[in-house]
Amino acid sequence: MKKIISPVIAFVLLFSIAAMFSGCGDENYPVMAANIKIEKKPEKIVVLDAPTADIIGQIGYHLTMEGRSDEVNQQDFSVVPSVGSEASPNVQQILDLGADIVFAGSKIPSETVEELEKEGVKVVKMAVAETPKQLKTSYETLGKILGGNLEGHAKGVEGYDGMVRDLENVKSSVTGTVTSAMLDTVCYIYLEGGKLMVMANGTYGDLLLSNTGAVNVAANIDEEKADVIETLKIANPTFIFYQDEATLNAIKEDSVLSKLGAVVEDKAFMIGRDDMTRQGVTAVKTLKKMVGYMYPELVTETTPVVSEADGDAQQFGNTQESANAQQTTAPENSKPTEKAAAKSVAGDYNLELDDKLELVYEDDSDEIKAMQQRLFDLGYVDDEENITGYYGDISKQAVEDFQKNNGIEPTGNADNATLKAMFAENAKKAEAASESSAESSAESSAAESSSAE
Predict the structure, then answer these.
(1) Does residue 409 or residue 329 have the better pLDDT?
(2) In 406-444, which positions are buried (b, 16+ CB within 10 angstroms) versus exposed (e)?
(3) Under 8 Å between Cβ of 68 and 75
């Protein structure tokens, strides 16, 4: 009898164990986000909301982006095809791309959501985080949706912590270099419903302002209850950042604010709301823009801002910024105002290289001809007959090759940072690619091809 029962017991045990493991399934999925259940890891996504795209880039899931709205205009996503505006996306194009999930903001029409969901496409609407706590939650939520409850959540946390560390690194480069008897003060002013507002304590804007190395004059007040005019009159900030021309006009038209030192001394600088609401790959760029205005002597001295943590997020978001910083970081024993940047040879090419010059694909100009000559001298353009002044495909490929070899994100676009690196005396020649640069190039190329597929 025992010989009959034992095999039966063994079978029951094996069946129970198999059932137990099959019931567990993948620990990463399904994921619950608000009232939406994500059954499996998304393979293809479309992002209509620019702040959400910024965070996705920071946490390293940008390779799944198959489409974007016109508002998602960050240069990092320029290779991803547009599906129209955020308020009026092309539904058929989204379906043709095979999207699993569409990330949207408040502008997407309800009928568009219904049409997409009817075809089996999940629509996740994201709100712009107003506070650092909300922002961390956004990172974690997007991480979980795109990578799962365990792996994705961990990448979300890592991405947020990395972004905060990068901001703090910029602050350290300021506080460790600027010598002043008193701390500078700063504020960000914007218009909301025709009323002047300041970014105050606990806001994302305060997080940025506090990392400029200056003190946010509105850090200790309630944003909703603040008396902007009285606050600024008492604080008289050293620097003012404002949303747009309408905000500046409102400041200048006010009898009190127009007399502030920052306004009189022309120490007011426009930082658009886009920059103040894109809380991922754009964050450090925005902070550096602020710091560069406040302390121009530090533009070529800012320490590298890429986190030590490995991963696509930091590499994707900050490759160009950190590469330029690494080439131009000041020695430890240098004085605060000394420039450690390599000498520019732009003058040798009769090129006036200021902080605004950018060369545009398919344009024709003497500046482009100077760039082509420089690329020829560095070995990125093989034939001197291609020095025509026209920015065509050959020139674009040469720019991209230069970027790969010099640690800059390979876009093929001759932006200001690329031109400064190109005309630097120590720019790497075509044959001088290091092993690390080659690896970086391979990764960047893979990213572009994956996004373009």
Answers:
(1) 409
(2) bbbbbbbbbbebbbbbbbbeebbeeeebeeebeebbeeb
(3) no
Token representation of residue 426: 């120590």
Would you say 337 and 297 are in contact if contact means Cβ atoms under 8 Å apart?
A: yes
What is residue 85's DSSP assignment?
-
Report the 10 Å Cβ neighbour count for 151: 15
When pLDDT is averaged across residues 308-317 and rounded to a whole number, the result is 36
User: If pLDDT is split at 50, 70 and 90, which confidence band does 113 have?
Assistant: very high
**pLDDT recorded at residue 3:** 39
CA distances from 328 to 109, 243, 269, 339, 344 (A): 47, 30, 25, 8, 12
Q: Which residues contact 96 (CB under 8 A, 6 or more apart)?
A: none
Is 355 in contact with 416 (CB distance < 8 Å)? yes
Write down the pLDDT at residue 144.
96
Instruction: Give the separation between CA 237 and CA 186, rounded to whole angstroms.
Output: 5
Contact 53, 47 (CB under 8 A): yes
CA 7, 8, 12, 18 torsion: positive or negative? positive
Contacts of residue 212, defined as CB under 8 A and 6 or more positions apart, other chains included, come to 171, 174, 186, 287, 290, 291, 294
Identity of residue 5? I
Average pLDDT on 101-130 reads: 95
Q: Name the least confident of 33-37, 79-83, 369-373, 438-442.
A: 438-442
Residue 300, pLDDT > 60, answer no
Locate 232 and state its tokens.
């600024």
DSSP result, 212-251: TTSEETTTTS-TTT--HHHHHHHH--SEEEESSHHHHHHH
Which single residue is written with the structure tokens 């790959």? Answer: 281
Question: In this structure, are residues 77 and 97 in contact, taking their beta carbons and an 8 Å threshold?
Answer: no
Residue 116 and residue 92: Cα distance in Å, rounded? 9
pTM of the model: 0.63
Q: Identify which of 165, 135, 122 has the alpha carbon closest to the alpha carbon of residue 52.
A: 135
CA distance 381 to 373: 8
Q: How confident is the model at residue 76 (pLDDT cuts 50, 70, 90)?
A: confident
Q: Cα separations (Å) of 32 from 122, 148, 153?
A: 12, 10, 12
